[in-house]
Amino acid sequence: MAPADGDQVIQQILVVDDSRAQRRVLSKILSRWGFSVLEAVSGAQALEIIKYYRVDLVLSDWMMPEMTGVEFCKKFRALERDHYGYFILLTSKSEKGEVAHGLEVGADDFLTKPVASNELRARITAGARVLRMERELTEKNALVTNTLSEMSELYETLDRDLIEAKKLQHSLVRERFKEMGNAQVSLLLRPAGHVGGDLVGQFPIDDENLGLFAVDVSGHGITSALITARLAGFLSGAAPEQNVALKKKGKKYAAEALEKVAEQLNRLCMQEFETEHYFTLLLATINTKTGEVSFVQAGHPHPVIQRANGNIEYLGSGGNPVGLLEDVSYEQVTFYLQDGDRLLILSDGFTECPNPHGELLEEEGLEHLLHDISAIRGPDALESLVLGLQNFAGDVEFPDDVSAIMVEFNKTD
């Protein structure tokens, strides 16, 4: 019977020796132990046999004509095989230099001739342990490879889905530029990843008034993006009957009190959004004829006015984010844009953007960027603002979503 350690691991052994008598002795011992035995008279014949048979262990004489056991071992190791083969050299050599050379070319073990059966059995048992570990490792590597392949396929599928989701999220910002009355409105949305938690938009109220909103959902990724999609429905310009910022007035619509809208969104978020996410909000209306602007601020960065003379002002008192606390109230603020003034509603992706040294842009850096783009108008101004932010950040990916609304007020009458 084969040694217990050899079960299933070593099934077929190849004996290579130019001595027929030596081959027969070894084959008889191995067969008695339950191994399947192949014989070869030379290294060349052994290499041919290995092409057609699975050989788990090789017993090869060192001294053979034409091709020595060491030369055969070197060629054996060079073969492309799907499993490891244990190689034992049979030798009468005892010099350490010769043994070291055998190990260098790939031999695993040595047996001194004449071979004692108990020593042979011990060496085969040791080889079986090595082969068992090697095959277990091969199986685990195959499992890892298959798992990585499956994960890669899943990643590619997810990546394709996220690319489509990014397109859909960008489609939520239907108009990137709108001109109405004396106001020109430009919108910018740039997620940090495939999809993000920022959203900006505008919706018509009547012939003179326009609604604006900027949202920044906590966190990043798919969940935040899904919340922005839900909020886009609440503030839709395409479906005024679903817009919580509008109320029916006869056959037309009028603006709902902004503080009430923020409070309603807070209730909806607390009651319906089964998530730990919350969001900041800047909701505003602008009379595009007179320049009157009203807004509520719910944790969103302060709106910035860049006056025609270059002076910069910050408005609002902050307010509580939406969906964080129950029964909170919000305050409406009203101001006027004058001829040549510019209003910017920016996400914190601007002021909290770090440079390569970890220093944040903050309000001082933002003011420098705004002065740099003071002569640029329309969407180009926002793109130039982002370019300035990229230069500050060192042309790396922004760590947070970047979004903005810019209103330029220029009287024409």
Automatic annotation (TrEMBL):
Superkingdom in the source lineage: Bacteria
UniProt-listed PANTHER family: STAGE II SPORULATION PROTEIN E, STAGE II SPORULATION PROTEIN E-RELATED
GO BP term, pick one: phosphorelay signal transduction system
Keyword Lipoprotein listed: no
Keywords assigned by UniProt, alphabetized: Hydrolase, Phosphoprotein
CDD domains to which the protein is assigned, alphabetical: REC_OmpR
Record domain Response regulatory: where: 12-128
SMART domains (UniProt xref): PP2C_SIG, REC
4-aspartylphosphate modifications at: 61
GO molecular function: phosphatase activity
Organism listed in the record: Halocynthiibacter halioticoli
InterPro entries with a match to the protein in the record: Bact_Sigma-Reg, CheY-like_superfamily, PPM-type-like_dom_sf, PPM-type_phosphatase-like_dom, Sig_transdc_resp-reg_receiver
Name under which the protein is recorded: SpoIIE family protein phosphatase
